[in-house]
Amino acid sequence: MDYKQLIAETLHEQLSDQLELNEIKDLLEKPKHADHGDVAFPTFQLAKLFRKNPAQIAQEIGQSVSSPLIEEKQIVGPYINFFLKKEIVSNAVLKEVVSEKNNFGNLNIGNQSNVPIDMSSPNIAKPMSMGHLRSTVIGNSLANIFEKVGYTPIRINHLGDWGTQFGKLITAYKKWGSEEDVRKEPIKELLRLYVKFHAVAEDDPSLLEEGRLWFKELENGNPEAVELWTWFREESLNEFNKVYDRLNISFDSTNGEAFYNDKMEEVVELLDSKHLLSADQGAHIVDLEKYDLNPALIMKSDGATLYMTRDLAAAIYRKRTYDFAQSLYVVGQEQSNHFNQLKAVLTEAGFEWADDIHHIPFGLITKDGKKLSTRKGKVVLLEDVLSEASSLALQQIEEKNPDLPNKETVAEQVGVGAVVFHDLKNDRLNNFDFTIEEVVQFEGETGPYVQYTRARAMSILSKAGVFDFDASSDFELSDDYSWEVIKLLQEYAHTVKRAYLNYEPSIIAKHAIHLAQAFNRFYANVRVLDEHDEKEARLALVFATTEVLKEDLRILGVEAPDEM
Ligand code: ARG
How does it assemble (predicted)? Predict the structure, then answer.
C-alpha cells in the first residue's frame, strides 16, 4: 500500500482544478517528528495559484479533506499534518510482505533493459587496493538495486591488463625473476619486480627504454612477450578471484583493456573522419576547450594508444553489444576528469547516447583521517583484511553463542559482511576511516548488528513455530512501536527507488539500520509470544522484518545467517 498515493488522491478531490495528482504527490512530505503526523502537505507553493496566503489555504483545504485512512488531521500554519489509521496501514502492509516475500519492494521501471556496470577493474600484477574493493562492492550493490527496479545489470570487470607497465614487468622478470617465485606468491612477487624496476631505473634510465621496447614487442605479438603477459594475467586473476569468491561476487564479463586492442583503429579513424583529431607535438588529441576540459590524448607520437582510447572503444562496444539504457562506471572520484573527457569526445563524435554514460565516483578509505598509501613494497592484501575480519567475528561468536553449529561459516558471513556493510553505509562520496575492530562490532550501526537483529527475529519465529502466514488473516496493529516498524516497511519500494535514482547503496544500508533499530525497540516493549488478540499480527510483523532485512542485506551483497 502506498499511503502517500492515497492521501494525494484524497487531496486531489479538492484540488483537481489546480493540480495534477502527481504534483500533489510530489509536494507531500514525511515530517521529521512523529508528533507532526505521518504525512504533511505544505501549501507554500500554492500561494501564487490561489492568491491567498499559505496558512489560509491550509485551513480551507484541511477542513474539507476526509478519508477512511485518516485518523486525524492538524492544521499547523501552512501545513496540513495527517495522522493515519495505523491498523488499516499495518494490515495492508503486512499482507503485502507476507504474500510477496522477497519480491516486496520490486518495481518495474527498467523494462528489463540492459545496464552495463563497469566495476572493480583492478590492475594486473598489482594487488587489488581498498579503492578497488569499494568499486567492487558499490558496483555489485548498484547491480542489485538496478535489478530490483526492473533492469538487467551486466557486471563488467574492465581489468587493467594493458599498457606500458607490462613492458617494464617483462623486463624486470627477465632480469631478476623466476617462475617458482611468481607461482608461490604471484601478486607479491610481481609487485616486488615492478618496484625494483623503478628503483633501479632511477640510476639507470636505459632500463626505461628496454621496458618500452618490450611493450612494443608485446603489442606486435612477440610470442615470448605474449606468453609472459598471459601468464601474469592468469596468476593475477586467480588471486583476484579469491577475493571475489569470498565476497560472493561474479562478473558477466572480464573483458579488460587488452580486449580492445583490435577495436581502437576504428575509433581513431572515426575521430579522424569527423575532423576531431589535431596534432600536438606529434601526438593526436581531441580539443575539448568548449567543454572547459583539457584535450583528450588519443594516440602518442609513437602510435601507442592510451587508457582513453581503450575506454572510447569499450564505450562503443558496450553500446553495440548491450544497447544499454545507461552505462555506469564505478570508479574513484580522482578519475572524474577522465570520464568527463570520455563523454565529451563521444558527444563530439555525434553519439547521443553519451548522455547515458554515468561516472559513479566514490570517496577514499582513510586511516586516522589520512589517505591509505600502498607504501612501496609494503602491501596489505585484501584477502588478509577479510581473514582478519572473519577471525574477529569468530571470537565474538565464541563469546556470545559457543554452541552455534557451523561457527566458521557464520563467522565468514559476519566478518566479510561487516567489511562490505561498512563500505556501503556511508554516502558514496564521503571519505571514511577503516579500523577493522570498529567494523566488526555487534552493536552500533554495523553489518553484524543488522544480521544479529535478524537472527534474533528468526529465533522468535522458531519459538512460535510459524514461518508462514495466511494473507487473509487480520494484521491490524495500532501501538506506536509497531507503527515505527510498519512505516519503514511501507516505504520500502520508495527507498529502493531513491537508492536507484541517486546511485546510492547507503540509502539501503541506512534503511536496514533504521529497521533493525525500530524492530529492537518493538521487541523490547511488545510481548510477541504472549497469548493475545494481536499475537498473529505481531508475529507477522516479526516475519516481515526478517524478510525485508534479508532483502536489504542481499541488495548490499551481505549474507543473512539465520542463526548467529
Ligand atoms: N584499472 C583502472 C584503475 O585501477 C580502473 C578502470 C576503470 N574502468 C574504466 N573503464 N576506465 O585505476
Answer: Monomer.
